[in-house]
Design goal:
The chain has 2 domains: 33 residues; 111 residues. The protein has 7 helices and 2 strands. The chain has a two-stranded antiparallel sheet.
């Protein structure tokens, strides 16, 4: 084998290695796109600021002090919250459905009621959630999903307690 042939074979092997590494990296990134291993704070921990960094709270999604919040922003919040309560083949957003987040979202919706097209829909859903009634989550998810132009990830049913805990990464 000549020196140039050896050099060419070496470059081919290096190129194959780089392609394989890139393919593995892309696969790993796509496989881990969703938020996973999210812990739900207990009532006592809900006020603690050093929560799991993968938890999205209302203030992570919308500026709660903003003068004007849009229908799109409210829909994004509700859509993300429903994901812990419904079964769907795809879930791309997540906002933890905690009492604090529900209360914050109610405040946002009430402050912006004069210009929110679907104010009644939002406030009705949120008030039920505030009372611990999550039976409307499939309907809320799918209505918001439709408004957002969804084509994959339609909710099919409410999640069981075990499925919700699994989605949240909870051990209790």
């Amino acid at each position: 084998m000549t020196k140039s042939t050896t050099k060419i074979l070496m470059w081919i092997m290096v190129s194959i290695g780089l392609l394989a590494g890139s393919a593995y990296g892309a696969f790993y990134f796509i496989s881990n796109w969703e938020v996973k291993n999210v812990t739900v704070p207990t009532e006592d921990k809900a006020e603690v600021e050093d929560v799991n960094p993968t938890e999205l709270r209302v203030q992570d999604v919308v500026d709660t002090q903003s003068e004007e919040v849009t229908d799109t922003e409210v829909q994004h919040l509700l859509h993300g919250m429903t994901h812990q309560k419904v079964v769907a083949n795809e879930k791309w957003t997540f906002t933890i459905m905690s009492p604090k987040n529900i209360k914050s979202t109610i405040g946002i919706v009430e402050r912006n009621k004069d210009h929110l097209t679907h104010y009644n829909f939002y406030i009705e859903a949120l008030k039920r959630w505030e009372q611990g009634d999550f039976s409307n989550c499939v309907e809320v998810h799918n209505q918001v999903w439709e408004w957002e132009g969804g084509n994959v990830g339609k909710a099919t049913r409410l999640a069981t307690t075990e499925e919700e805990k699994s989605y949240l990464g909870s051990e209790n």
